[in-house]
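A.,

Following up on our hallway conversation. Structure tokens first:
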């Protein structure tokens, strides 16, 4: 018999199985059996169990304790900041919905729905902070344009964007 079939279950397999059991809808009896017998499995048995767990559907999302209450969620286009990370909420083309972009270096990358970034109305930045951030990255914090007009350079933001923070 090859050693791969007789080696006992590995620590990474145990932690993977535990995380799968957290994520998936595992029937109670199966979960009980796994917990009771897992320690004595071989790596092969563990792999088989992992395959079974991966075939199960994900648990429905349950609100976490740190989830933002729906009323507090930011819903207006603008610039927001959490712990030094800058986000921008934008409206879709038909203005029926908003989505979040995150500033990475000097570019905004797509994040998705507002709840994913846990942005609240209170995270919206002030015009003063927008000017400060624009100065720090050397471009408008809202539209990413490099500023050229003398007045814009001085205040680090263009006249259109500054009204939309
Ligand atoms: Zn701008």
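Then the amino acids I'd put at each of the 165 positions:
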């Amino acid at each position: 018999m090859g050693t791969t079939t007789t080696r006992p279950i590995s620590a990474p397999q145990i932690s993977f199985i535990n995380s799968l059991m957290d994520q998936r809808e595992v029937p109670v009896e199966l979960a009980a059996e796994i917990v009771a017998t897992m320690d004595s499995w071989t790596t092969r048995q563990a792999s088989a169990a992992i395959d079974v767990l991966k075939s199960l559907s994900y648990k429905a999302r349950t609100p976490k304790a740190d989830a933002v209450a729906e009323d507090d969620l930011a819903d207006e286009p603008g610039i927001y900041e959490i712990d030094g990370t800058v986000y921008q909420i934008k409206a879709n083309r038909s203005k029926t919905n908003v989505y979040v972009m995150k500033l990475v270096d000097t570019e905004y990358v797509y994040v998705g729905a507002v709840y994913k970034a846990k942005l609240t109305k209170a995270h919206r930045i002030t015009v003063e902070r927008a000017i400060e951030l624009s100065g720090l990255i050397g471009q408008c914090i809202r539209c990413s344009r490099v500023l050229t007009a003398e007045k814009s350079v001085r205040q680090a933001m263009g006249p259109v964007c500054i009204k939309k923070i």
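The chain has two domains: 9-55, 70-164. Curious whether your intuition agrees with the design.

B.
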